[in-house]
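ok trying this again, last paste got cut off
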Amino acid sequence: MKAGYRPDVDGLRAVAVLAVILFHAGYGCPGGFVGVDVFFVISGYLITRLIFAELDSGSFSLAGFWERRIRRILPILTVVIAVTLALGAIHLWPDDFDGLADSALAMSLMVSNLYFWQDTGYFTGPAEYKPLLHTWSLSVEEQFYVLYPLLVLLCAGRLQPRHRAAVLAALAIPSLALNLATVGEFPAAAFYLLPPRAWELLAGGIVAVLPAPAGLARPARELLALAGLAAVLLAMFVFDRNTAFPGAAALLPVAGTAVLILATSGGVTVVAAMLAWRPLVFVGLISYSLYLWHWPLLVFARIRYADVANVELAAIVLALMLSALTWRYVETPFRRRGAGRRALVYRAALASTTVIALLSVGVAASSGMPGRAEAYGALQRDAGFDVPDAALLAGRGTPLGSPGPGTDFVVIGDSHASTLLPMLNDLAARARLSGLSLARAGRSPFGNVAGQEHIHAALLNIIESTRPSAVILVARWPNLFGRAAASRNYAENLALLEALVDAATAAGATVWVLPQVPEHALSRAAVRFQQLQALRHPGRHHAPTITRDEYAAATAAARDAFDRLQRRGARQLDISAHVFESAGPRAGQLVRGPAGMLLYWDNHHLTQSGARHLLSPLFAPLFAELAAGGAADIRKGQPRPGR
């Protein structure tokens, strides 16, 4: 080991990386994300100690410093990015693979933090399926490593040791102030960007230049070390996704780490001895590889084995094994000074960066290589039937079915209505009905949302002017009626729907309400992987697991609202008879499509083929009755036979 090596610091690294992994795996460490902040302090401490030791000995050079950073960071990073791209080609849908390639390119240019800052929040659902999301912290460190030695040479390099801490503090204070100022209004910027994060690395730098508290009594150092560790652990187990972070909350793990390192630099403490436990030190030694491997493995495990319990544990074990191997055979050889001349190191860095960049650009240029999924277009949810707000306000919709002198039916809803429009368009054309789409994907026309009043009024005006025979309402109803019936939001949304039903009924229309299609628990990324598998293996059946009882429980609040609408003349279509098996060994379970057919686009939208398979039998007789001029009083379809 190097002179001045501190095994307790590697032990602290282990605590940090294990906290991050437990947080990402969902294993009972709700504030484990602060492990990254612990990393920042440790990195600032080690880098500052190295720089000033070489400055004081007259051996420091920028080229040498950056060469060591390249040796440390780039080899294993290149391996992990390459493997992640390969796994992405197998598991990701074209647009998701395109996003992965963009993030790989950003990482190769040391700006993945900027990419994710613009792309998504760290704690949002979609972020959980971005395989290179965790590289944001590496970009922060790399940017720091480029600028920090220059600032040290400029501001503190020739100062007396006793003044260096003050200079570093002067650099840290504006960064901390920026962090505190931005975390409320610009939380993503405070989280991802170097300026609001630099104070954490500089805190480690301050510890590195402060004199060791050797003169402090042993009990005092023990107490400080214990307090520092307690602060770090408190943040890890008390903070959670709802904590405003980094902000003032980051002071707890950052200060705790700094105090812990400083207290144990003056001599051995009980805490330092605990952190120097050999298994913990080994995890600290492989922590960089482990940090890189764990997240993409967790992401792809959750995508591929979404319905397997504790798949995260298997991913963690695999990450530990790969980390030990790559630390031994990739990290360690490249970090040895004799591994190559400096010019060769820089050329190798340029070559590896270029290769990753070219791979990423190639994937991005092909829009995620859609050729991997030849039937990609067949699974798209909509087919251009959505209506822009400007058209609604002008009293226009999108025509459906066969042109006619009047309007037989109108479809109003959100993206769930959009999913059904190709199927409804074909059924209407066969029945020689003329329809109008007033669907707005991603923007429910029914909710009591500020600024939507003009849309509500436009819908009422269109119904009054077209006077259709039927109005079909389709939406993700749990979004509107997922709360208790006594809540204000529930009541306001219901009042808007009641006004719409009253207006349609007054215009002579029969109102049909289609309940929410069953939702399942698979992530969008997992569903898309199933889609890829269906395209690759067309002979297999692919259907999520949903039961009739689960569906009934999830839609209970919405059914109460439908009952109230029925009392005003609306008619609820019985979707359960068509989407759940009625008999046989799969009775009560979601109907499976034919081999190779994907029913769902994500966890709550049907594909076009799924909509046709599940709901055509419900709407076909209804449209036939409407075409015959009947009352269109079809509330229940024939149940499906058992399979």
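PB: full thing came through this time. The chain has two domains: 7-372, 377-519+555-577+608-627.
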